[in-house]
Amino acid sequence: MVVLPVVDEEQLVRAVARGDRAAFEDLYRRTAPWLTVRLRRRCSDDQVVAEVVQETYLAVWRAAGSFAGSAVDGTAVGWLWAIAARRLVDAFRRRARQERPLPPAEPVPAAEDEVLAGTFDDAVGGALRDLAPDLRQVLQAMVLDGLTVRETAVLLGVPEGTVKTRARRARIALREALS
C-alpha cells in the first residue's frame, strides 16, 4: 500500500506557481465548491458567480508565483478568497457601468456567522449575533474579507459614507454590549 503525503492548499499554490497543472486541478477541485457557495452569499446571479469563479482561477494560475499568504489570515484559501472578493467587486462595477443592477442576494444564515460567533466566548458571540444584519455585513466584509471601505461599498451597494457609519455603529454596539 502506497501512502501519499498530505498536500495542503498552500503547497498546491506553490506547485501551481511552478506550472503544475495537476496541482491546479486539485486546488480547483478542493476549493471551487466552497468558493462558489461563498460568492453566492454575496451575489444571487449565477452567471456573475460563474464568471467570478473563472476569473479567480485564471488569476490564481497567472499569479501563483506571487503568493506570499493572505493579508487576512495568511492562508492560501484566504488568498484565494481575497482574489475572488475583488473580482466580485469588479463585476459589480462593470454591471454598474452598464446600468444593469445585480439582483440582491437572499439573506441566508451564514456558516461564517455561526463560526465567527462560536469562535468567541459567549459574550462576544452574543454581541455579534445581536448586531443588526447591515452592521454585521459591513464587519464581515471589512474584517473577515479584508476589503477596503470602497470595495465594501461596491459589494454592498451603498455609499462609502454609509459603510463608514455602519462600521462605527457596529464598533459602538459591540463595545456597549461587552461593557
UniProtKB/TrEMBL annotation:
<keyword id="KW-0804">Transcription</keyword>
<dbReference type="InterPro" id="IPR039425">
    <property type="entry name" value="RNA_pol_sigma-70-like"/>
</dbReference>
<dbReference type="InterPro" id="IPR007627">
    <property type="entry name" value="RNA_pol_sigma70_r2"/>
</dbReference>
<feature type="domain" description="RNA polymerase sigma factor 70 region 4 type 2">
    <location>
        <begin position="124"/>
        <end position="174"/>
    </location>
</feature>
<keyword id="KW-0805">Transcription regulation</keyword>
<feature type="domain" description="RNA polymerase sigma-70 region 2">
    <location>
        <begin position="27"/>
        <end position="97"/>
    </location>
</feature>
<dbReference type="Pfam" id="PF08281">
    <property type="entry name" value="Sigma70_r4_2"/>
</dbReference>
<dbReference type="InterPro" id="IPR013324">
    <property type="entry name" value="RNA_pol_sigma_r3/r4-like"/>
</dbReference>
<dbReference type="Pfam" id="PF04542">
    <property type="entry name" value="Sigma70_r2"/>
</dbReference>
<dbReference type="InterPro" id="IPR014284">
    <property type="entry name" value="RNA_pol_sigma-70_dom"/>
</dbReference>
<dbReference type="InterPro" id="IPR013249">
    <property type="entry name" value="RNA_pol_sigma70_r4_t2"/>
</dbReference>
<protein>
    <submittedName>
        <fullName>RNA polymerase ECF-subfamily sigma factor</fullName>
    </submittedName>
</protein>
<dbReference type="GO" id="GO:0016987">
    <property type="term" value="F:sigma factor activity"/>
</dbReference>
<keyword id="KW-0731">Sigma factor</keyword>
<dbReference type="InterPro" id="IPR013325">
    <property type="entry name" value="RNA_pol_sigma_r2"/>
</dbReference>
<dbReference type="GO" id="GO:0003677">
    <property type="term" value="F:DNA binding"/>
</dbReference>
<dbReference type="GO" id="GO:0006352">
    <property type="term" value="P:DNA-templated transcription initiation"/>
</dbReference>
<comment type="similarity">
    <text>Belongs to the sigma-70 factor family. ECF subfamily.</text>
</comment>
<dbReference type="InterPro" id="IPR036388">
    <property type="entry name" value="WH-like_DNA-bd_sf"/>
</dbReference>
